[in-house]
Amino acid sequence: MNNNGTSCKFEFTNVKCTSLEKNFCDFEYCYLKSVNRSYKFISLKVNLFKTPRFNGYRPFMFNVTVDACRFLNGAKAAPVVDYMYGFFRTHSNMNHTCPFDHDIILEKLDANFMNDQVTKVLPVPEGDYLVETHWIAYDIDRVVVKIFCTIS
Prior knowledge:
By secondary structure, the protein is of the alpha+beta class. It is built from three helices and eight strands. Strand 2 and strand 3 form a beta hairpin. Residues 54-61 have low confidence and may be disordered. This is MD-2-related lipid-recognition domain-containing protein.
């Protein structure tokens, strides 16, 4: 609920995925789909052309650096990392420990699910948001994913 007593609504407004080194990985797809006014979702698939030799994916989230392999193996991380992982855990094949010797898929992350995450799990203030993640392997930026959304 916002200050005037009405319920908040999360809405995806755009998604942009960029491979920074196409011989390492590239996006097979990355899109926001609107099925109707109340059902929108994000899907993406990044093809890995060189699979990791060591544990090495580390995303940057809200200026927080985390080694994803250690995190997925049970290491403690900042609370914001647990919260952000909750956004895509059940919609992704990134739900096991390293190594990732397969393509990475995020499938049908829908706005209704996200609405529950940002209004019930941990209320987020109204506004326009950009969640920008940089995925690093072997100390080189490989992928940037930008998700644009509005909470009203």
